[in-house]
């Protein structure tokens, strides 16, 4: 460092400002990434809700008209579909 304290202080402040600008940019980039992940998660949730709604509607049709189930269709226990933990 220089022997001039004022010059040293100016350089140190300049370095701090550069660091803060870099941190702010990093923070903004991370916020964009998080918003993107959140958007994708919301889309997945909407998709799952749609699938659940469609499955529920199909199930209600079968319950309302039990004779409409095809001969090759059968009840499958949850444990068979999802394992013993279901």
Summarize the structure.
This protein is mostly helical. It contains two helices and no strands.
N- and C-termini, Cα separation: 68 Å
The residue-averaged pLDDT reads: 84
Portion in beta strands = under 5%
Structural class: mainly alpha
What portion of residues is helical? Answer: over 70%
Can you describe what's shown?
This protein is mostly helical. 76% of the residues lie in helices and 0% in strands. The chain has two helices and no strands. The longest helix is centred in the middle third of the chain and has 60 residues, at 5-64. It is rod-shaped. The model has no long low-confidence stretch (mean pLDDT 84).
List the helices and strands and how they pair.
Elements: H1 5-64, H2 78-82
